[in-house]
Structures are given as C-alpha cells and as structure tokens.
Write a structure and sequence with these properties.
307 residues, globular, Phosphorylase Kinase, domain 1, 10 strands, single chain, Aminoglycoside 3'-phosphotransferase, Chain: A, domain 2, 5-stranded antiparallel sheet, 2 domains, 3-stranded antiparallel sheet
C-alpha cells in the first residue's frame, strides 16, 4: 500500500525546461504536478521510493514499488502534440524493443512503466558497439502503425519546426544560419511529400533513450511517436554524440562516413537520410535556443553545415 501521503517536488531541470518551452501553460502544469503524481500513487497502490533528478525535460520520473513489491516507474509528463501518443506506441510495441507499459492515464499524461536500469544508457557503450545495438533495436520498433490510431505525421513535425523557426528568426544564432535552416525546411517538406513507406516511428531515438534491462539487453524509452519513413528516426541517431564527431579530425568526412554506415546498416536511402539529418540538426538547434543552450544550438548547426 502507498501509506502516508508522500511529498513530491519537480526537479529544477524540469521546472526550467517546461517554463522555457511552454510558458504559462507549463507553469500551470507544474503547479498541479505534485497533486497529479500523488493521486496516481494512491490510485495504483504504489509506494514511493525516490524522484529522479534531473529526470525528464517534460516529465517527472519517480521510482516506485507496486502492491506486489515489484519495481516500477511512474512517469507524469506534460501532454504535448509530440508526447500525447506515447501510450499508444508503447501499447502497440507491447514490450518488444521498448519499455513495457503497465498502466496509463493518457488524459493526465501519467504512465506506469516497467523499471529499467536508468543509470546504464546505451551511451555508456563505446560508439561502434552502441550504434550496432541501436540499429538492431530499431528493426524491432519499426512496425506497421496501430490500426485505428491517429498519430502525428512527418508533415506535422515539419510544420512544427517551421513555426519554431519563425519564432527564432531574430536570434543571432538562428539569423546567421537562416540559409541553412531554409534549406533544411525545404528539403524536409519535399521528403515528407514523396515518402514511399509508412512505419510507426519512435520519434526521438538516440543513445540516451535506450536503457539496459533485465528481460532484454536494451530497451527504448520516451518515444515521441509518429508515422513516416524510417530515415527520419535514423537521422536522430546520426546526430548522436555530435560533439565527439565534430571534434574529430576531418569532421566533414566523419559525418559522411557515419551516414553511409547507418544507411547501409538498416537499408535506407542515403540521400533521404542526409536530408532528414539536415532537418533534424536544425530542429535540435532551435530547441536548444528555446531553452537557452546556445552552445548546443551552434554544435548542431555546425553538424548541419557539414552535410
């Protein structure tokens, strides 16, 4: 049983990112968050262990035990167009390649998940081994979209990024990269319009969103699911550890080599992967600007420039 009512507080990182990206809506959500999480501890007969700090950028992550003493994770997230369908994807995957969904309150953005090894992300492996494990896992996640579910599309994501760009045109970093950003958007619009395949995509697949597990070596977490072509998911993976790649000798050649290796590993068109990687690099740069991470924004724009 859950016992006496616990005290839950949002970590500083969560407060900062939610406020920066969602303004008044985010502040209202943060104000209600402790009560929302506490009510679900009671509703699902959970015993609080501890809150992860820093946790997620849009979600409170709490380690809990269920009534049968099995470990689990309570995730209370801000519902956005990108996160609203996380439960849909996890239900469809049913634990195949991804964390298992144990219970859900989608309207409130609260999920009960199996406990993975949160301190052992795929990023803990050397890059060649991590990339091999990541591409193997993607093969399990790329399946037919669930029947009857209305999920965001790649065209929706492109439109969201275009709106984000409009909001940052005056920023010095964005202004300097305007031609590159315009090229990325035009490329993405063309790719979204002529894709020849439609899969369920993770949406934010990188080494930090893959954790060690007991029932499988590695499982994906935190999907921002949508439907579209596989090259879009692979493009986010291509940007992983960008700082290491950019800092290596002959960075442009290293970037091209990575794209070639990833495209071959999962049999996607290299030119389409390049286009989506360009788009996702610009998108990540704009997200970084939103939360005041100028160095991250410049890093991703430099990566985009090498494409």
């Amino acid at each position: 049983m859950s016992g006496s009512a616990p005290t839950l507080t949002a970590p500083t990182w969560l407060t900062t990112t939610v406020t920066a990206t969602h303004g008044e809506k985010g502040r209202q959500w943060l104000a209600a968050l402790p009560a929302t999480a506490t009510s679900h501890l009671t509703r699902w007969n959970l015993t609080l262990e501890r809150t992860l700090d820093p946790g997620g950028s849009l979600s409170l992550i709490v380690y809990v035990h269920r009534d049968d003493l099995s470990p689990a994770v309570l995730k209370a997230g801000l519902v956005t167009p990108e996160t609203a369908h996380e439960h849909t994807a996890l239900t469809h995957w049913a634990g195949r390649g991804a964390v298992l969904l144990l219970d859900a309150d989608p309207a409130e953005g609260v999920l009960l998940l199996e406990r993975l090894h949160g301190s052992i992300p795929l990023r803990s492996l050397a890059e060649p081994k991590a990339m091999l494990e990541a591409t193997s896992l993607l093969h399990r996640l790329w399946v037919e979209p669930p029947a009857g579910a209305v999920l965001p599309t790649l065209a929706d994501r492109v439109a969201d990024t275009a709106a984000r760009l409009e909001g940052h045109r005056a920023h010095p970093v964005a202004a300097a990269a305007q031609p590159l950003a315009d090229e990325a958007l035009a490329t993405a619009e063309a790719l979204a319009g002529d894709a020849a395949e439609t899969f369920l995509l993770h949406g934010d697949f990188h080494h930090g969103n893959v954790l060690a597990a007991d029932r499988a070596p590695w499982l994906a977490i935190d999907p921002r699911p949508l439907t579209g072509e596989r090259a879009y998911d692979l493009a986010r993976l291509a940007l992983d550890r960008a700082d290491t790649l950019i800092g290596s000798p002959g960075a442009p050649a290293a970037v091209r080599r990575r794209l070639h290796q990833l495209a071959e590993a999962v049999d996607v068109d290299r030119d389409r992967l390049r286009g989506w990687t360009l788009f996702r690099a610009v998108d990540l740069a704009l997200r970084a600007l939103t939360t005041g991470r100028r160095e991250d924004a410049e890093l991703h724009l430099e990566f985009a420039g090498h494409l």
